Amino acid sequence: MKQRHIAITILAVSLFLTAAGCKKKQPVAPPPPPPPPPVKVEKAPAAVINSFTAEPSTIIRGESSTLRWSVANATAVSIDGGIGTVPASGSRQVYPSANTTYRMTAKGGGGDAIAAVTVTVTTPPPPPPPPPPAKASLSERIAKDVQDVFFDYDKSEVREDARATLQRNADAIKAILNDFPSAVISIEGHCDERGSAEYNLGLGDRRSSSVREFLSQVGVPAERLKTISFGKEKPFCTDANEGCWSKNRRAHFVGVQ
Amino acid sequence: MRYNKPALITGLALAALVAASRAQQSDIVIKLTGGQKKTIALPDFRGAGAAAQYADLFNRTVFEDVQRSGLLAMAAKSFYPLNPPQQEPDLRPTPAPGAPRRGEQPQAPNCNGRCLSDWAGAPTSANYLGFGYAAENAGQFVAFGHFYNTGIADPNAAKVFRKLYTGALSEDGARKTAHEYAADILQQFGVPSLAGTKVYFVSDRSGRGTKEIWVMDFDGANQRQLTQFKSISFTPAISADGLRLAFTTFAKGQPQIMMYSTETGRFIPFFNPPAPTNATPSFTPDSQQVLFASSIGGFLQIYVSDLSGANARRLSNSRAIEVEPKVNPKNPSEMLFVSGRGGLQQIYKMNLDGTDVVRLTNGEGEASNPSWHPDGQHIAFAWTRGYAPGNWNVFLMDVASRETVQLTHGEGKNENPTWAPDGRHLVFSSNRTGRSQIYSMLADGTSVTPLTRDGSNWMPVWSK
Predict the structure, then answer these.
(1) Residue B195, CA distances (Å) to A251, B184, B221, B463 in order
(2) CA A212/CA B298 separation, integer angstroms
(3) Number of domains within chain A
(4) Per-residue model confidence as pLDDT tens digits over B214-250
């Protein structure tokens, strides 16, 4: 395989050399004539503007652009647009408020040179519109507008003083459910620590169900109310006195998106 | 209610009776052991070679098992003769008393522990002697356990048994052989051993605010976590065959029942009725059905279903909260439950077809956590009678006569008593030392022994 490769290469090279060797040779061209002798210059040389740039050439109004230039053979250099006379090379920051073309004139003994750069000024994009008034989250709305209701020991009936609270809760919940069309309200039933853990699962279940029944009777859609009994497993406070127990015998409301 | 004369709870496992420790204050007397307790001496086994490091654990386990049985009095170790036998050839027949020298009282024979009479006589005054030694044999822990009746002078006639116990050369092996030896001793007195039985319970030790299901040996060894939901899982119940564990869990939101195979360590599907709450499962004595409370009809009521949860059928019918169904192990057509149908929660009994509902507790205080004694005639339960609401104590009741006896007396809250398979022990939870822990005790309220120490622990159930 390798040998064959080498053979092909040798063949190709020899063919090329053969072909090249067969090309007819061109006749040799005669040498060009010598250049004429240089004319002696008496006058001073003309001015040359090697560079004149604006960086950046596009700015947002209020930003600056830097003009840079380099001029040779000039006797005087000036830039219009209120800049005036400048040295032969240098830079200058400019703050144009609208599209501006800066013209440079370089005067030289042998002639003047002119160049121009344009700085394009764009207006900045408008600021974002002011944020819409902050919308309270589901849990914030419930915490603010929906209050816990409390129960007597071993009782799940809605107390007289809880009825007014629940009526207010119903109005708030209707508004909240309206604003959060996919939300469901979970009614948690809680108990104090004295009854047995097992029995209290049933008591918490009853408390949450009583509240759900009340709310649905005053027009809250029942299908958007669910109940969960925590028995005495998640007490609001843990002291062993009636002040604490009465806080733990409650129905508590939580939003579920 | 009080009784003028101590009434008797009959039918507990043993033959004769002994007064409960609080017989004077207590309403009834529990029958646990026969007459005067026999006294036993258990000199420490010594360990040879690699077995030596486990000898302490072995000795402690044997001693605790025998002591916890409540069956025998333990002779004071400080009275033991100094040179206890380790194997059969060490024992000598009691020598005949020599003729007393002139002017001296006759001396009792004394062989420093090598004669059974050394143990039978004062000050040890033991009726039985258990002795032996432990050794390493072919990489195993081997204990040679002996048991002798010290009332018989001839060692050959006095021998009750001698047996070889083999286990792994480890703490587990030492514990296992010790349980076996203690079980053989207790069996001489007609008591089934609890060795190998388990206690399922609830603990928060893997995270405050969580409750997981745990299991341990009956003596508190080998505590192990079963559930890992980082949620609240509680009210464990174990089937009579020991194969299934059911419990209530918040792992999926609302409280629902979950089923677990103790054989495979896997969860088994259980179909919960579509209710906000399904809770407090238990098994029928044949381990083929589940009873539980469900609020599918509004109030938590008692239902029965297949092990899969299928074919659920309502058993109780009231507009009240009813939980904790417990079928009588000896009469599967009868069950206990806790109900608020008469006001505060009380314990009721009814037939499984819903007929013959009777209240067992007299309406005082609140009652919960009924647990059938294996005899199907007595129950243990928690009651606040005589105390402010929430201050639970463990009581026993003779179901036929409704006579009760109080086993705990206000040492914290004492709840969820359940019977050991031997019908002589109970486990329960108590916060008497601060946090709730699991304790075992004898059915007369004595030998209260803590089984847990870490975190808070609740709701023990004793499984065979």
Answers:
(1) 47, 10, 11, 11
(2) 12
(3) 2
(4) 999 999 999 999 999 999 999 999 999 999 999 999 9
ipTM surpassing 0.90, yes or no?
no
Domain with CATH 2.120.10.30 in chain B: 198-463
The answer to whether the Cβ–Cβ distance between A199 and B392 falls below 8 Å is no
The arithmetic mean of pLDDT across residues A35-55, rounded, is 75
Superfamily of domain B38-95+110-187: TolB, N-terminal domain (3.40.50.10070)
A202–B253 CB contact, under 8 Å: no
Average pLDDT value for residue range B84-98: 84
Residues A196, B369: C-beta atoms closer than 8 Å: yes
Domain annotation covers residue A31? no
User: Would you tell me which CATH number, out of the four given (3.30.1490.20, 3.20.20.30, 3.40.640.10, 2.120.10.30), belongs to the domain B198-463?
Assistant: 2.120.10.30
What pLDDT, on the 0 to 100 scale, is given for residue B190?
80
Residue numbers in A near B295 (CB within 8 A): 202, 205, 209, 229
Q: What is the pLDDT of residue B172?
A: 93
Alpha helices per DSSP H over B139-212: 155-158, 171-187
Pick from B378, B367, B314, B324: which is nearest to B342 by CA? Answer: B367
Closest Cα in chain A, distance from residue B8 (Å): 29
Chain B nearest CA to A137, separation (Å): 22
Q: Which domain holds residue A92?
A: 48-122
